[in-house]
Amino acid sequence: MNSQKSHTNRNYYTFYIQVPLEHNLAAYTVHINRMITLPITQQAKQQEWNIILTIPRNNGFPLQIIHNLKNKLMLVTQQTTAIPTQTQLKKNWVTFTYESPLIHKVTNLFKHTNLNLAF
User: For residue 61, which of 49, 73, 52, 50 has the smallest C-alpha distance?
Assistant: First the structure.
């Protein structure tokens, strides 16, 4: 018989031990964010969510905190995918090979455009 302990009991995020709450929340955030962002089927996401919920249930961690964290992360993920940002636009660069007061006056013309300047 194998006398080694099984690693399937998932006893590593105990709520009432000396682990700070921030560390627990960071670990659960990673797990939940991974579940949300992975391109997997709904059935696989549900299975992953059940596994994530098993960990706090086995360790006395309040499940409401985990549910609130999931809702918050899902809301943030939906908002970031719905709003296109300015950084997604292609940046156009203009390069000036010389630096002089005249060049600085010319570059002032480009300040209010979508062009980035390099010297």
Answer: 52
Burial of 58 (0-12, 13-18, 19+ CB in 10 A): middle
Count CA atoms closer than 13 A to 33's CA, side-chain side. Answer: 9
Tokens of 97: 């090979």
CB 67 within 8 Å of CB 25:
no
| Residues whose CB falls within 8 Å of the CB of residue 62, separated by 6 or more in sequence, listed in order | 15, 56
- Global pTM reads 0.56
Asked if residues 4 and 28 have their Cβ atoms less than 8 Å apart, the reply is no
For residue 66, count CB atoms less than 10 angstroms from its CB and return exposed for 0-12, middle for 13-18, buried for 19 or more: buried
Give every CB contact of residue 12 below 8 A, 6+ residues apart in sequence: 55, 59
Give the model confidence (pLDDT) of 9-60 as tens digits.
Answer: 454 555 656 678 888 899 999 999 999 998 999 999 999 999 999 999 988 8
